Amino acid sequence: MTAMKKLPIDVVINILFRLPVKSLTRFKCVTKSWYALIQSVDFINRHLNRATTIKDEFVLFKRSFKEPEGFNNVMSFLLGGVGDDDLDPISPDVDVPYLSTSYSCICHQLTGPCHGLILLTDSTNLVLLNPAIRNYRLIPPSPFGIQRGFYRSVAGVGFGYDSVHMTYKVVRISEVYGEPPFNCPSVMEWKGEVYNSSTDSWRELDCVDQELPWPYNFAYSEIFYEGAFHWYAHKNVVLILCFDINTETFRTMEVPEPCASYDEKCHSLLVLDEFLTLFCYPDPRRESSPIQETIEIWTMQEYRVNESWIKKHTIKSPPIESPLAIWKDRLLLFQDKSGILISYDLNSDEVKEFKLDGYPATLRVIIYKESLTPIPKGSTQVQNF
C-alpha cells in the first residue's frame, strides 16, 4: 500500500479502475485523496466503461415464497461457479424492500441494468438499486391522481438513461377507465407519466396517442435498448411499442410475420449477441399442443429495419413459464411451471436445473456487471441492503 501511494496518480488510477467494486469500497478508506478519486464522476465512468469479459457478469435473482400471512420477496446475489455453469451466492439473501407481498407479486418486474442501476417495481412502488454497492432508494410516488369513479391500470413501466439531458427516467403507461357502475367500455383513456431523476419529480406526458397498442405487463415483455424502451404489445396483431427516452415520443415496430398473429404462443424481449431478440414460446396457460413444442428465437439484425428479422434458433425445451435472461451469451435462463430456475445451452442443447426456486411465476433474473454508479439523490433516503 505504501508503494501504491508513491506511484504517479495516473498509474494509480489505471490500477484502481481495473479492481472490483468490493476492493474499491475498502480502498476509499486509505486516504482522503483516494476517497475523492473513487467517488469522482470521471473515475466512476472509467470504471463503468472498462473492458470486461463474461467472467465479470453477476446475476441478481428475485423470487417469492408463499407464507401463511402472504408472500416473502427475496433477492439473491449470485456469481458463476469456477469452471462450470453453476450459480453460487456471493452474499446472504435479502428481503426485497417496499414491493407488494400479496398474490400480485407475480407481476413484479426487474428492469435494467442501466449504468449498473436496476429498477424493481410492482407497478405501484418503484425501487431503484445498485446491487454492486448494495444501495437502494424508493422513488417518490406520482402525484397525479384520477377523478372519482375511475380506475387506473398500469400497463407498462420502463427505466433508462436520457443521454441528451443526462438523467435517468422512469416512464409509466396507464389505462384509465370507469369503475362500476360507470365502466362503459367506450370510456377509456391512455395516460403517460415520466419521472426525472435530476428533478426528483413526475410530470404527465402531453398528447399521448389514444390509439396506442396495448403493452403486456408480463415478465420480460419489456426491455430498454438503443435509447428506447420496448414493450411487447398488441393491436389486432402483435407489435413492439417503443418509447424514445430522449424525445419522449412513442412509435411501433413490427415483429416477424410468423409471430404477428395469436397462435397459442407468448412473447418476450431480450438481447442476444447485442441484437434485439424476440422469444416466441408456449403459452403456459394453455394445454400442450403441437404448436407449443418449440421455442423460436428471432433477432433483428439491423435495428428498426423490420425486414432484418431472422430466425436464429428453434429449440425444444421442457414446459416453461417464461424466459428470464441470457447468460454467458449461450445459456437461456427460464423459470419452469413449478417455479424452478433452469438453463438451456444453445451450444450443446443441455438442460440444467439449478437448486434455486420460488413460488411459480415469481422468478426474475437480471445479468449485470459491477458499477460504482450512485443512486440519484432525492426526497427519499438512499439506504443499504
From TrEMBL:
Annotated SUPFAM superfamilies: F-box domain
InterPro entries: F-box-assoc_dom_typ1 (IPR006527), F-box-assoc_interact_dom (IPR017451), F-box-like_dom_sf (IPR036047), F-box_dom (IPR001810), SCF_F-box_component (IPR050796)
Pfam family, one: FBA_1
Boundaries of every F-box domain copy: 1-48
N-terminal signal peptide: none
Transmembrane segments: none
Record-given protein name: S-locus linked F-box protein type-3
Organism (species): Petunia hybrida (Petunia)
